[in-house]
Amino acid sequence: MSTIETRRHRLLGHVPLARVAVAIAVLAHLFATPAGAHPVSQGKLEIAVSPDRVSVRATVSNEEVLVAAAAVESRHASPIEIRNAHGDYLLGHLHVTADGAPLAGKVVARPATLSGRPEYVIEFRLSVPRPARLVFWEDVLREFEFAPGVPWEASYVVQVRQGVRPPRGVSLLTFREPLEFACDWSSDLPGPAAAPSHERHRTALTFFRHGVMHILTGYDHLLFVAALLLAARSLWDLVKVVTSFSMAHTLTLAMSALDVFRLPEQVVEPMIAASIVFVAVQNIVQPERSRGASRLLAAFLFGLFHGLGFAGGLLEAMSGLNLSDLAGTVAAFSAGVEFGHQAVVLPVFGLLYFLRRSSAGKAGCDRLVERGGSAVISLLGAIYFSLAI
Predict the structure, then answer these.
(1) Are 178 and 196 within 8 A, CB to CB?
(2) How many other CB atoms are there within 10 angstroms of residue 112's CB atom?
(3) Across the chain, how many H-helices and E-strands are there?
(4) Which among 8, 31, 36, 322 is least buried, having the fewest CB atoms inside 10 angstroms?
């Protein structure tokens, strides 16, 4: 069985056999997709605008191809046929309008091999030459569920080039936010590559929101932070352990962005899963080590791997950007990640603090909450680990 068929089987193979197995099937479904623990696929679009056409070179993730292929009958298709067929799917889910009129497209290039990320070239012919405004939007993978009630989504790092001019900055295209491009046909001479300030601010805000959503939809990071939270007894405990974790993942995220240090997903994903199990089990069997220097060290060491997990396919999609664009997008994304952390950490800690205060006179109630919550987290982490290795 090929790698693609194996992953396809894992993606679709969760059918509950009895009512008692429903909960287990749902938990397995959360983690059995090729993307690990995030319902977001990252890709890159290089768009060239000419007077008579718009050419889109799309570099997509392998997981995008696998998720889309899993929904159609492709049992007898070869891996390269599955890759090639994805070009037609992409054509139906990438949309371009010129001055409000939708453009018809055609796939003119498909991947020739199985190596690397698949690339496709789609050309959209302009019905009216030299339009004033182009709008790009996409709904790739939105019809597929990552988990019950949680659809997949694809996002793309975008660079748009008009004529012989260099690309004007970098943008992020998601299903939530279309990308607008104002054409300038006043001159065919190369112009400045820098985007206007309002476009840079919009791009930064888009990457910030992307970082927030990366946390809010990232079950692996949420489980790890939840395990840290359960052991925190005071706000100071929480501040120390979250700061240690944040310093570590920010360090490796920056190193990955600068291509100083990276690890393959086959190493990162199991280590993130192992970190969840380790911290949760430590809360149960070694509660005395779930606070203090040993917990800070664990949060920092595992945070290094989580930083590589934050990077994921985003950094691959941003490869080739100049240093200025890369630094700005990574900074905005990192700020969004931290905001997402705080949006989860502070309310949950407040709830736990309230529960502890209200049950102060009930012996063992606090310990029961910590052990029970940690047991559930360790089970979920174990499922994730078994599917990540």
Answers:
(1) no
(2) 11
(3) 11, 12
(4) 322
Amino acid at 7: R
User: Per the structure block, which two tokens stand in for 226?
Assistant: 């939840």
Mean pLDDT of the 339-363 span: 79
Rounded to 10 degrees, what is the CA torsion of 92, 97, 101, 105? Answer: -40
Are the beta carbons of 273 and 223 closer than 8 angstroms? no
Beta-carbon-side half-sphere exposure of residue 90 (alpha carbons within 13 Å): 32
At residue 145, the 3 state secondary structure works out as: strand
Q: What amino acid occupies position 331? A: A
Q: Where are the domains of the chain?
A: 39-195, 214-388
Contact 119, 53 (CB under 8 A): no
Sign of CA dihedral 242, 244, 245, 250: positive
Q: Which helix (H) or strand (E) holds 198?
A: helix 197-216
Residue 267, SS3? helix
pTM higher than the cut 0.90: no
SS3 call for 180:
strand
Residue 105's H or E segment, with its range, is: strand 105-109
Summarize the confidence of residues 4-33 as an average pLDDT. Answer: 36
320 pLDDT tier (thresholds 50, 70, 90): low
